[in-house]
Amino acid sequence: MIPTHAKQVFQGIIFSVWQWEQQMFDGTTKTFEKLKRPDTVNVLPVVGDKLLILKLKQPHHQAVLALPGGRCEEGEDFLATAQRELLEETGYEAEKYALWRSFQPEEKIEWTIHTYIGHNATQAQSMAADNGERIEPLLLTFEEFLLLTDDPNFRHPDIAHVLLRARFDKSKRDELHTLIFGRK
Amino acid sequence: MIPTHAKQVFQGIIFSVWQWEQQMFDGTTKTFEKLKRPDTVNVLPVVGDKLLILKLKQPHHQAVLALPGGRCEEGEDFLATAQRELLEETGYEAEKYALWRSFQPEEKIEWTIHTYIGHNATQAQSMAADNGERIEPLLLTFEEFLLLTDDPNFRHPDIAHVLLRARFDKSKRDELHTLIFGRK
């Protein structure tokens, strides 16, 4: 997305800013600007016949509903991020991680969100919240999970779109149920 | 979203970067980082019983399907942006602009996308594309517009979500049809 001849003009804590000259259709050139940020990884943990999501509260922010997850660290692969974030945020470990979706939310940001399904998740240690936010785990049925599409505080628009389709289209719903829980 | 005591640490062409110290629940402080970019405004022009959308092609990018629209200029109000961008990109003018949706796509970016419905749009001048991209206008029926939810090149995820709901829920579809075309 960002061409190899682009120059980095700023490095922040999360974001870096890149600029480059690009030739247009009429032969003129124009300076373009895009950002990079570390990829993020989310996990949908399957706990028996329930799905684990989190209610997150940061200071001065409204509570949001989100999957466990976070940013990839330097040199860390996506699966390792999935395992680390799930354990850190919930104390759970999954038996098997299957990549479900990879989604690039913004045209102007080089950033992919990877979402795994964490099959057969069980609690390995107690929850140790980091200092930054209060985390409350919620165990939802499949039907309750689908209804997150109606909740404005649900943080994952690409997943909300998949859930909405599943709510209204039985074949998509059955497909998603099998993907998450396996064949009956 | 970005607190008033935040410091600007970078100003780019589109994006600016802001940082600030924040006290956490456990009393420690942490440096936070967010971005600002100018708000953007889109217009859904209603041309008789059709809807006007654009096929946009920039050098080195795949063509995308998008509503006419663009960034607010310094000091420009949203309605003025809607009128200017519609005229610049399509040559059309609408008789009445009604704000349809305001959407904040990213938690870490202070940025709102405002979408207007441009009622009774007519061609006032010929299309004068800017040098940066090739623009092809498409006139869609309401049914074709709803099917944009299946097109991965459709650029507006928040609107795709509304369209998907309308496809599967007749009362939402009737509501949207009335909002766009008025009462039968």
Protein model, in words:
The structure is a homodimer of 184-residue chains. The model of chain A has no long low-confidence stretch (mean pLDDT 93). In chain A, the strands form 3 sheets. In chain A, strands 4, 5, 6, 7, 9, 11 and 13 form a 7-stranded mixed beta sheet that branches. Chain A has 4 helices and 13 strands. By secondary structure, the first copy, chain A, is α+β, with helices and mostly antiparallel strands. Chain A starts with 6 loop residues before the first strand and ends with a helix. Chains A and B meet through strand 2, strand 3 and helix 3 of A and strand 2, strand 3 and helix 3 of B.
Number of discrete helical segments of chain A: 4
How many strand elements of chain A? Answer: 13
Multimerization state: homodimer
Question: Helix- and strand-based class of chain A?
Answer: alpha+beta
Overall mean confidence score, pLDDT of chain A: 93
> What portion of residues of chain A is helical?
10-25%
Largest interface: A-B, 39 and 40 residues
Largest sheet of chain A: 7 strands, mixed
Helix and strand sequence of chain A: EEEEEEEHEEEEEEHHH
